Automatic annotation (TrEMBL):
The lineage of its organism: Bacteria, Bacillati, Actinomycetota, Actinomycetes, Kitasatosporales. Belongs to the CbxX/CfxQ family. Keywords: ATP-binding, Coiled coil, Nucleotide-binding. Pfam families: AAA (PF00004), AAA_lid_6 (PF17866), Beta_helix (PF13229). Residues 632-675 form a coiled coil. CDD domains: AAA (cd00009). This is Right-handed parallel beta-helix repeat-containing protein. Residues 237-265 are annotated as: Disordered. Residues 685-824 form the AAA+ ATPase domain. SMART domains: AAA, PbH1. Transmembrane segments: none annotated.
Length: 922
């Protein structure tokens, strides 16, 4: 090196003899220790070997000093501390390196290496500074053995394979590396190799920009990895049963063993600090196997796949790191991977914000997951996730969804602006404390065999605030539900939720709904300002309500449905118009309740006070057994005989073809049962039916009888009828229809689902209507429950064909159509006569003839309702009959004799022709 020693000789080389030597090799042989060989521009065809402290420097001036080997390696460094400056080294043998360094501490400064790789091995510790490398094969730069190389501002372009490979026991210190276009990896570190990479830029690679394998432990700081065709960072290990090593300089990287990365059983530990990974062709960052990866203050943007992907048993930690605009999920974990993210966030992913499955564990602390195309946080399999002080916001699906056997723990987290549920549990389990859910289709929806916990949460401005679906239990404590656009809290069929010390306010629907068979325990709940009922107890529901306060309701504060048996204890109803409304057959129990400021009060307030029909008022310490058991179920009606049901069918007015078809079906099903009992295969049979007929032709009546007949035959467990239409089945937004259809279908299990005007599910000219989703859901449910439910679809004959053609699965399931003919005049007269007999009225011969004339003259347009028209006519006749008697002189005096009494009795039950209204007034 010039200036290395004042006493060292300087030798000059000129290719045309202008120097002291014609070849560089000759000058090297003549040089003493510390000498500098100055080389004039030109091409030197020779193989050089450096093994002493001698420097080779290109002279400044026009032209290039080019070293070209006739064969083999042009430049070999075996030792020494010399310097090679400004030389272009050109390899010609693709199987040999252009520069090979096996020892010493040589410096290559400002050199250009083409046509072959730079290979550093053994115990060499060279420095490459301001060099450019072009290698058609790969790797362009290879560091191996126990070498300790330093690379400063090295540029690798158009590499035919990996740009920089660090392997075996090598340790690299790399600053300012620029990789521009490589067919393989940008940087590959494997084996027990280590390295630090600072201010590097790696772009346009065919494989991963950074690939780390097995027990390598690199550190990257302020690096950019962009525009590759594969992963931005890929960390893998082929070791099995190994434990991930801690990342270098990362002793706080999370749970797991610490210690020497080279210890037995330890694998890759990688640290990236203040790095950018952008526009990768696949995952931005991917870790798989027993590896540990830490990203601090990094940015992962526009990944072609998942933003950060952890698989197998990888351990990944993200500190103050952001992941944005991923083509797939922002963050995904599978296998037994552990991912911890603190600070930063996941934004604008085109799938889920974060997804975990298998037995993966995910921890998000102080993170924001925003604007994902799918669910913000989705858990499946047996995954476990903990979210603390985070934010889940802006998605057309769910804020958080828990499925299968997954478990989610939320603490201090905000969920907002989700079109479906803010939090949806569909089979897994949930613990949520101090969380806030706002502006969601449904605030929180729980479907689980476990008992999810909500503690000190707030649900505001959602569709339904909290929905606990069928057969689900939940524990809800100190939680506030306000501003719901529908029900505040909905407790589904047979649900067993416990609500304690909660508030439900400003609901646009009923505040608290207990659906059929629900058996909750509700204690200390305050309900205020609901637009409908404060508490709506549906048919057959039960449960215990204690120490609740209900006020300012738009409908009666408490509604109790048929056969409902709730116990209402020490509750207060105040500041409302009406406190209680009971359906026929309701059987609530009231204990020590109070009312205050109620205009129309029928709520029993003591054991001795009068109680409305069907209500039991019990004082504290009442007789044992006075309150129904919380687990009591509604008993089924006593079994009906097949003969009685067939007689009821035959007694229907008209419908001769329908009655014949139903009796034929009954006989066929009897045969099916006998063949089954005899061990013979049943004949092909579909119990689902199409009822085609105009309005008022008895379709619902026959459907109800059909279910009872199947129950009597032992083919249905209950035989009850559940009526539905488009409004009951179709949701208002994406993802709402299937749950609504499923909920209605579940009500019909054991009986008949009757869908009136079924063709409304297929509107004319609306191919993307949600009704098609309802039909698809219905077809699947019919297949899954083909022995448990009978479905009858009904509507106008001309439109039912359009319904059947809407889905290929319908035609195979609805193979029989029953045609309901319009009633003729005589049959309509018979319906009026049947109504009169049922209500203990009599029709004289003249009245019957007048009815025949009436119905013969009725215009059968779109307003004509068949049997409904006949029933409406009977009602009008009774009204006109009452008005006629009130205006007559037949009212008895106190001294009326027996003949007058008999005359008035006859007038009270006899309908005359003048009681028939004019045609145009019906």
């Amino acid at each position: 090196m010039i200036g290395r020693s004042s006493g060292a000789a300087a030798l000059r080389v000129g290719a045309r003899g202008w120097g002291g030597h014609r070849t560089i090799g000759a000058a090297l042989r003549a040089a003493g220790p510390g000498a500098t060989v100055s080389v004039q521009p030109g091409t030197y065809t020779e193989n050089l070997t450096l093994e002493r402290d001698i420097s080779v420097v290109a002279e400044q001036g026009a032209g290039t000093v080019r070293l070209v080997a006739p064969r083999g390696t042009p430049l070999t460094v075996l030792g020494g501390a010399g310097e090679v400056r400004g030389i272009t080294v050109q390899g010609t043998d693709p199987d040999q390196p252009a520069v090979a360094v096996t020892g010493g501490t040589a410096v290559l400064d400002g050199c250009e290496i083409t046509g072959g790789r730079v290979e550093v091995t053994g115990t060499a510790a060279p420095t490459l500074r301001d060099c450019r490398v072009h290698a058609a094969g790969g790797p362009a730069v290879r560091l191996s053995g126990d070498s300790r190389a330093t690379l400063e501002r090295v540029t690798v372009t158009d590499a035919g394979g990996t740009a920089l490979l660090v392997e075996h026991g090598a340790d690299a210190t790399v600053t300012g590396l620029a990789v521009n276009t490589a067919a393989g990896h940008g940087v590959q570190v494997r084996g027990p190799a280590t390295g630090t990479f600072t201010d590097c830029e790696i772009t346009r690679t065919g494989a991963a920009a950074l690939a780390v394998e097995d027990d390598a432990r690199p550190v990257l700081r302020s690096c950019r990895l962009t525009d590759g065709s594969a992963q931005g960072v890929l960390v893998t290990s082929s070791a099995t049963g190994a434990t991930p090593a801690p990342a270098p300089d990362d002793t706080d990287a999370g749970s797991g063993p610490e210690g020497d990365a080279g210890a037995s059983g330890h694998t890759a530990g990688v640290l990236l600090h203040d790095c950018e990974i952008a526009r990768s062709g696949a995952a931005g960052v991917q870790a798989a196997g027993p590896v540990r990866l830490t990203l601090r203050s990094c940015r992962v943007d526009e990944s072609g796949g998942v933003g950060v992907l952890a698989a197998q048993n990888a351990v990944v930690r993200l500190d103050a790191t952001t992941v944005g605009d991923s083509a797939d999920s922002g963050l995904a974990a599978g296998g037994t991977a552990q991912v911890e993210m603190r600070g930063g966030g996941l934004a604008r992913s085109r799938a889920n914000g974060a997804f975990a499955t298998d037995e993966a564990q995910l921890t998000l602390v102080d993170c924001a997951v925003t604007d994902s195309a799918f669910t913000a946080l989705h858990l499946a399999g047996s995954a476990r996730a903990t979210v603390r002080d985070g934010e889940l916001r802006g998605t057309p699906q769910h804020g958080a969804r828990v499925t299968e056997r997954a478990l989610l723990t939320l603490t201090g987290t905000r969920v907002e602006a989700t079109e479906l549920s803010g939090i949806a549990v569909d089979g897994g389990d949930l613990t949520a404390r101090r969380c806030r859910v706002t502006d969601a289709g449904t605030g929180i929806s729980l479907t689980s065999a476990h008992r999810p916990l909500l503690d000190n949460c707030e649900i505001a401005d959602c569709g339904t605030g909290l929905e606990v679906t069928a057969d689900t239990g939940a524990l809800v404590a100190d939680t506030r539900v306000r501003g719901s656009r529908s029900a505040g809290v909905f407790l589904g069929e047979r649900s067993t939720a416990w609500l304690d010390s909660c508030e439900i306010t400003d609901s646009k629907g009923s505040a608290l709904v207990l659906w059929n068979g629900a058996r909750p325990r509700v204690s200390g709940v305050r309900i205020a300002r609901s637009a409908k009922n404060g508490v709506y107890v549906a048919d057959g529901a039960a449960g215990l309500l204690t120490d609740c306060d209900v006020s300012a309701t738009g409908f009666p504060a408490l509604y109790i449905g048929k056969d409902a048996k709730p116990v209402v204890r020490r509750c207060v109803v105040r500041d409302t118009d009406e406190d209680l409304k009971l359906a026929d057959g309701a059987e609530p129990v009231f204990e020590e309740c109070r009312v205050d400021g109620v205009k129309d009060s029928t709520l029993p307030v003591s054991a001795t006070g009068p109680a409305p029909t069907g209500v039991r008022a019990v004082a504290a310490g009442g007789a044992p057994g006075s309150a129904p058991a919380l687990g009591a179920e509604v008993t089924e009606a006593a079994a009906e005989s097949l003969e009685d049901l067939l007689a009821e069918l035959r007694s229907l007015i008209g419908l001769e073809r329908v009655k014949q078809d139903v009796e034929t079906l009954v006989k066929l099903m009897q045969l099916v049962r006998r063949r089954t009992e005899a061990g013979l295969p049943p004949p092909p049979l579909s119990r689902h039916l199409v009822f085609a007929g105009n309005a008022g032709t008895g379709k619902t009546t026959v459907a109800r009888l059909y279910g009872r007949l199947l129950a009597a035959l032992g083919l249905l467990t209950r035989g009850h009828l559940v009526e539905a239409d488009r409004g009951a089945l179709v949701g208002e937004y994406v993802g709402h229809t299937a749950p609504k259809t499923t909920a209605v279908f579940r009500q019909a299990v054991g009986g008949v689902l009757f869908i009136d005007e079924a063709y409304a599910l297929v509107p004319h000219g609306q191919g993307n209507d949600f009704g098609l989703e309802a039909i698809s859901t219905l077809v699947k449910l019919m297949e899954d429950h083909r022995e448990d439910v009978v479905v009858i679809v009904a509507g106008y004959p001309d439109d039912m064909g359009r319904f059947i053609d809407a889905n290929p699965g319908l035609a195979s399931r609805f193979t029989r159509t029953l045609l309901f003919d319009d009633y003729d005049a005589d049959e309509l007269v018979g319906i009026v006569a049947q109504q009169a007999e049922h209500h203990r009225y009599e029709l004289g011969e003249a009245t019957t003839e007048a009815l025949g004339t009436y119905f013969a003259g009725v215009e059968r347009d779109d307003r004509f309702g068949n049997g409904r028209t006949a029933r409406q006519l009977f009602q009008r006749m009774t009204e006109r009959h009452a008005a006629r008697l009130a205006d007559s002189s037949l009212l008895l005096s106190a001294t009326a004799d027996e003949a007058d009494v008999e005359a008035e009795t006859a007038s009270l039950v006899t309908l005359l022709p003048e009681d028939i209204p004019p045609l145009q007034t019906l």
